[in-house]
Structure formats: C-alpha cells, structure tokens
Amino acid sequence: MSTKHEKILQYIESLPIGEKISVRQIAKEMQVSEGTAYRAIKEAENRSLVSSIERVGTIRIEKKKKENIERLTFAEIVNIVDGQVLGGKAGLHKTLNKFVIGAMQLEDMMRYTDPGSLLIVGNRFKAHTNALKAGAAVLITGGFDTTEENKKLADELELPIISSSYDTFTVATMINRAIYDQLIKKDILLIEDIYVPLEETAKLRSGQTVADFHALNAHTNHGAFPVVSKNNKLVGIVTAKDVIGKDEKELIDKVMTKHPISVSMKTSVASAGHRMVWEGIDLLPVVNDDGYLQGVISRQDVLKALQTSQHQPQHGETIDDIVKSEMKVLGTEDVVVEFTVTPQMTNQYGAVSYGAFTTLLTEVGLIALKRRKRGDAVLENISTYYIKPIQMDSVLKVVPHILDMSRKFVKMDFDVFLEDMLVGKAMATFQLLDR
Questions:
Q1: Where's the CBS domain (predicted)?
Q2: 125 band by pLDDT with thresholds 50, 70 and 90
Q3: CB-based contact 428:382 (threshold 8 Å)
C-alpha cells in the first residue's frame, strides 16, 4: 500500500512530458494538503521528473537515463544561465544535442545549426528566425529581446527562445561546466545502479517464524533477510547468527535486529561499502524516504561494482583525477611518489590546498598497501602537518611508512620532502576491505 507521498510521485510520473503543474493543482487533484503536495514536487525535482523555472512554473520533464545524463534540457539551461523565456515555453522539456555559438556569417551559422541544437547568439533577429525554422532553440546573450514574429514562431514550433544577461563566452562556459558536472555524476556509482529490486529480494514478513527463516535460507542460500510489514515497510533484519539455538516456532520479530541500518537509492556505492565494513554487516536494505523497502544490496555486490568501476573510462575530471595524473611512483621495493603541485591544487595564497594534500597522501597510502598485496582500503582518519609552505610548481617526494597492520586496520605515517627539505608530515589510519 503506497503512502500519499508515493501516490503523488506516481501521479507526477504519469503526466505527459511538458505538462505544467502547481502545488495548488496537485493538492486539489490528489486531495492532499498544499504542504504535502509541495514536498512531493520537491522530491520529484530531486529525481529529475520536473523542473522549476522562475516566471514560468514547474513542468514535467523526461527523466534522463544515466548513459544520457550529459544531455541537458532547455529548462535546465534556463536555470543555469539565469535566463528569461521569451517564447516556446511548451518546448522547455526537450533536450539539446549540442550548442552552437553564432560568431560567424549567417549562412555559415546555419550549416552548424541542426534540429535539437541550441544557437547562442546576440540580437541578430534573422539568425533567431532561421535557427527556429531549422528546428533549433535560441539563447540570446546580453539581455536582448527578439521580435514578436519570432516569439510567435517559437510558440508554434515549441522551441524555446531564452534571453540571458550574460555575454556569449560566460554563457558557453556555464553550460560547459554543467555538462562537465553531469559527466562526473555519471561516473559515480550509486546504489540505484546495482541494487537488487524489491521484486527479486528474498524477505520475511513480520509474524513469520524461525522455521520460515530456515526454509528461505535453504531455498536461497542467503544468510540474512530484511523483515517487512504487510505493506513492505522495513521493520528489521534477521541473520543466521540471530536464529542460532532458537526454537523453530519463535517469532522472527523477537530475534531480528530492529531499526536496522539502511541506505537510499542516491547513496554512493563507496559510502555504502565503507559503512558495511565499519559496521561488519553483509546486507543493507534499500529504502525510500518513508522507510518502505525498495530492495537490498550485499557486500559482494558493492565490492564487485567498485572493482569494475576502476576499469571504466572516466569522463569528468575530479580533483582526485588531477592529483593522480601528477603522481609518479619511483622505486620497486620501497614506495616513493614524486608529485608536482599544479595551480588547480593551490589555495588563495598559492600554496597547496589541504584537500589536494590529503588526497595525495591517501593515494600514496593506497599504493603502498597494494604493494603489500593488501587489496582495497578506505581512509579512516588522517592528521596532517605543514612544516614549510608548499608553493605551486613544487616537485615533492612522498615517502609512506607502514607502522602497524592488523586484519582490518593499517596505521601509516608519511614524510613529504621538497628536494632534501622536510616540508610536511602526516599520520593516517586505513580500513581494509574484505576481498
């Protein structure tokens, strides 16, 4: 049985692409309070089902698949460039294939302007008309307007004309940045990418017995199961350890762990893996905001996904990627890493930033652990000390020392040298992931 919140989300998802919605309309249609409707619309926006645009309203947009996440809708473009929609509002839900900067003769401009593209241009009215007729939307820079005829044409063709006060270079940079951020998001594995959905999840219901656990265990070979209520709300989790020595007729409710740790669809796989190792658990239930079970994720699923992702091509470049690109491992026995501080890694004073320095030491630590054939690990904590300022373009040498290693944890310290001068030190603890 779905909650009011879920029913509203299902209703929004069933609306045709391009449909305009409002809090008042949803409240009236679904017979709920305006507060409930507002929260559901905000959740729909987080799930990329709708987009809210100033002076236009909230419209239903097509949810992008992860492989097409770098394609932006015209509604998103309006928000990115702080734009105003002059015409063609009915086409805001459409996605653009590419954008074209109109810094050329009109005839040449049109050769590059295809259906589904976005022409970025100033107050060149003829270019606006030709772009619309070619099936492209128009973004006018400098805060300029267009003709009434072009606005009517945009409405007829359902192709947006957007006006932004920014100049062409700034607008192109902002759109590029948005696509770049989307590419980074695309590379980050989330629980929704690898979880086992509810329909395929082996589960027990409140009121069942230890005998039911053994029967399900014999059928699936799984050692743990989520426990749900009649309407699939998560109430607990039960493992093989919980039922050892228990009477077959004992209720699951009495032996299960209540209020278990759970994750959401948007939790990163790396975060879930760290939590599972830290808490010593093999199965995590996946729930929505209201606590209803949506599926499960196992430790094996997490480790397999993380190992696979390491071999995938990366598109968006994060600070971790930039740091790794400047690292060079020296020596074959004892690990020594040479590292160049680039301008992107510095703070406002031109010295290496704390974030870049911590990332460097973490990566060096992971290399040292792999040399010891200890597999994957995650940083637990780190304390860093700057002995001398480390300026941009400095070429550093980082030397890690493993101080203590147990089955689950490793303590390590680092010496950071600039030529022969000690400029930094650090102490870190890593948590080893089970293979």
A1: 183-254, 256-314
A2: very high
A3: yes
If you ran DSSP here, which 8-state letter would residue 310 be given? T
Q: Which CATH number fits domain 1-63: 1.10.10.10, 1.10.10.60, 3.30.70.3270, 2.40.50.140?
A: 1.10.10.10
What is the mean predicted confidence (pLDDT) over 186-202? Answer: 80
Q: Which residue type does 143 have? A: G
Q: In the chain, what percentage of residues exceed pLDDT 90? A: 37
- Residue 173 pLDDT > 90: no
Give residue 131's pLDDT: 92
pLDDT-derived band at 209, boundaries 50, 70, 90:
very high
User: Of 414, 356, 406, 411, which is closest to residue 380 (Cα–Cα)?
Assistant: 411
- Its CATH class, for the domain covering 319-432, is alpha beta
- Per-residue burial over 280-313, b if 16 or more Cβ lie within 10 Å, else e, is ebebbbbbbeebbbbbbbbbebbbebbeebeeee
CB of 398 within 8 A of CB of 346? Answer: no
CB atoms under 10 Å from CB of 153, counted, come to: 19
Q: What whole-number distance in Å separates Cα of residue 66 and Cα of residue 70? A: 8
Q: Which CATH class is domain 192-308?
A: alpha beta
Arithmetic mean of pLDDT over the chain: 85
Range list of H helices, 258-391: 269-279, 299-309, 319-325, 354-371
Q: What is the DSSP string of 368-398?
A: HHHHTT---EEEEEEEEEESS--BTT-EEEE
Starting from the edge strand earliest in sequence, which strands make up the sheet with 395-405, in order?
Answer: 327-330, 336-340, 395-405, 409-418, 421-432, 377-386
Locus of tokens 């998001």: 185
276-331 pLDDT per residue, tens: 877 778 899 999 888 899 999 988 888 777 665 554 444 446 677 788 888 999 87
Tokens 């948005």 -> residue: 178
More confident residue, 87 or 277: 87
pTM metric for this prediction? 0.48
Please report, in angstroms and rounded to a whole number, the separation of the first and last CA atoms in the chain.
39
* Torsions phi, psi for 20 (to 5 deg): -90, 135
Sign of the dihedral defined by the CA atoms of residues 396, 397, 401, 405, in that order: positive
